[in-house]
Specification:
The complex is a heterodimer of chains A (about 200) and B (about 350).
Chain A (H helix, E strand, L loop, with lengths): L22 E7 L3 H14 L7 E6 L6 H8 L5 E5 L2 H13 L5 E7 L1 H13 L7 E5 L5 E5 L5 E5 L3 E3 L5 E9 L4 E6 L17
Helix pairs in contact in A: 3-4
Chain B lengths: L20 H5 L17 E2 L19 H14 L4 E3 L4 H18 L4 E6 L2 E6 L4 E6 L10 H6 L5 E8 L2 E8 L8 H4 L4 H4 L11 H10 L7 E10 L10 H4 L11 H4 E12 L6 E11 H4 L3 H12 L3 H6 L6 H8 L16
The chains are: A alpha/beta (about 200), B alpha+beta (about 350).
């Protein structure tokens, strides 16, 4: 069974402004604030009036410097909303997308797991690849979907993790955008109790 | 071929599945040579010799009734083995039409389809089903159209929507799979879906296969064979149930391999669908135990050589690591080193 090097693992790229967009929606978490500020600067240099059609949703996070939060709060855009928790941002993001117009460009930046949850919502609204820019930064901790009990475990940092159902799962690179999670498969099914060494790999 | 069904066979618990001598002779061996590596081995799905598994576009064999019952057992426990995204309804009707028309045309002794405008009457004698419904109106069937008809068909069925130059796995009935999950893979692009396959991406196999399939034409279906191995004649080797069947892999010895180890061959067919422009991908699994296989001397020699020399990445990917050596040891006495004739025919 292939564990690493699986092609469904999402590949993200540094954020670039898209001047064909009429509206710009920026969504970030913690250290993701930095690339958002960078792309916002690039956008406003290239199209000085774009700020009036830009809004930012951002989760403040102890991992990111206070100065980033300050700069985001002060950004010259139509609307800035700060959240303390990721799930609050996701709910707001969903409501914004429901009211968004053709020509909207989405910019996403943050840690692995946050990216996946945002992309899942974008997928539910049928945004296509041309409408999304996404840059990963911060922790690579994963959401892991147990293929046996169908529940997800958040913030997995190790190659092997115990699911709520009690099984020890090996975390594969196989990724579902629809579930916003990597696949976890019972690691000792063929030889009960034989666990490989547990290592921190998703830092 | 006049099929005699074996309705009481099982693919779980006591595993009473067996192949008759006729079923062994028509087994679709996937190895035209004594060694194996991936290739884009796609060919036109043209009718093959009478009695072969490719005589008709959709093969019905002696295991039909038992396989349909096995599917119903899986679905009773895990309804999510059938899934379809809402925009796939028109392709569901396309699939229903394809399967009903093929079976009624090719097996008139078992199936009948009467079409009067949109009012259709479907008769399935082996499963004792008689259904009148309105084509295009899901309310007139007991399940969604794809679920309804694939409960009456052997093999797994996946429907791929075509857009943005890609094929998206967005509907399917998957209960007889070799270790992949429809629930997990729903909504994936062609390459995401095939992500866990080693080597083939680097060889460009999926680039070429995707390009080929995007241009697949109506009424010109294609097919290929794929294979792996399974311990016991177990159809449902899903990742979901890996904890149930995984332990079997550690129990194979040269002494029991003849009975336990099965070659599992997938006859994969792909059809363009007329209304939806989607593609339906059928994955029909044929199982044969090693002791059944060695009744054909050429196949015993060939499979021995293929397994013995298989690329290590494929040994791992196909899940053979724990028992490949035991199977090779079981087969070795049947391989006298004589050359094998080209092609896959029994002799």
């Amino acid at each position: 069974m292939l564990i690493t090097g699986i092609k469904s693992k999402p590949v993200y790229a540094p954020l670039q402004p898209d001047l064909r967009g009429r509206y710009h929606l920026m969504v970030g978490h913690g250290v993701g604030g930095e690339p958002l500020l960078r792309v916002l600067g690039d956008l406003q240099t290239a199209a000085p009036s774009s700020g009036a059609h830009t809004q930012i949703l951002y989760v403040t996070d102890a991992a990111a410097a206070d100065s980033i939060t300050g700069q985001i709060r002060a950004a010259k855009v139509a609307n800035v909303r700060l959240f303390e928790r990721g799930d609050e941002l996701l709910a707001a993001f969903q409501a914004v997308l429901a009211g968004s117009l053709m020509g909207t460009r989405l910019y996403v930046a943050g840690p692995e797991s946050f990216m996946g949850l945002v992309m899942r919502i974008a997928l539910q609204f049928n945004l296509n690849k041309d409408e999304i820019r996404a840059e990963e930064c911060g922790t690579l901790a994963r959401r892991v979907y147990c293929i046996h009990c169908c529940s997800a475990t958040e913030n997995v940092r190790t190659n092997i993790t115990q699911c709520g159902c009690g099984r020890w799962l090996v975390v594969r690179d196989h990724y579902s955008r629809r579930l916003a999670a990597y696949m976890g498969v019972m690691v000792d099914a063929e030889a009960p109790g034989e666990l490989p060494p547990v290592k921190e790999v998703f830092l | 071929m006049n099929v005699v069904f074996k309705p009481d066979e099982t693919f779980r618990d006591d595993f009473t599945f067996r192949n008759s001598p006729e079923a062994i002779r028509r087994f679709p061996l996937p190895f035209p040579e004594d060694r194996y590596m991936y290739s884009v081995n796609i060919e036109e799905h043209l009718p093959g010799p009478p009695g072969s598994v490719i005589e008709f576009p959709i093969d019905i064999d002696e295991h039909y009734v038992a396989e349909c019952r096995e599917r119903a057992l899986v679905l009773a426990e895990e309804p999510r083995r059938f899934q379809a995204l809402p925009h796939m309804m028109s392709s569901q009707w396309d699939c229903l039409e394809l399967i009903m028309e093929s079976l009624a045309r090719d097996y008139p002794q078992h199936f009948a389809l009467e079409r009067r405008g949109s009012r259709w009457v479907w008769t399935n004698r082996p499963l004792q089903i008689h259904q009148t419904f309105t084509f295009g109106d899901p309310a007139t069937l007991p399940q969604e159209p794809l679920e309804y008809i694939t409960r009456q068909a052997q093999g797994d069925w996946v429907v791929m929507d075509q857009r943005e130059g890609d094929l998206w796995c967005e509907a399917g009935m998957v209960t007889t799979q070799a270790d992949w999950s429809l629930d997990f893979d729903m909504g994936m692009s062609f390459k995401e879906w095939h992500g866990p396959v080693p080597l083939a991406h680097e060889m460009g196999v999926f680039d070429r296969a995707l390009k080929f399939l995007l241009n697949l034409r109506l009424n010109e279906p294609v097919r290929r064979l794929n294979w792996t191995m399974t311990i016991h004649p177990r159809l449902d080797t899903s990742p979901e149930n890996y904890y149930k069947w995984g332990p079997d892999r550690a129990t194979v010895t040269p002494q029991n391999a003849g009975n336990k180890a099965h070659l599992r061959v997938e006859l994969q067919g792909l059809w363009r669908l007329p209304r939806s422009n989607a593609i339906v991908f059928s994955i029909r699994a044929y199982l044969i135990s090693m002791q059944e296989l060695v009744t054909v001397p050429k196949w015993a020699r060939r499979v021995h050589r293929v397994l013995r020399d298989l690329h290590p990445a494929l040994v791992d990917y196909k899940g053979l690591s724990r028992y490949r050596d035991a199977v090779v040891e079981y087969l070795a006495p049947f391989d006298d080193g004589a050359p094998t004739s080209p092609g896959t025919a029994p002799e």
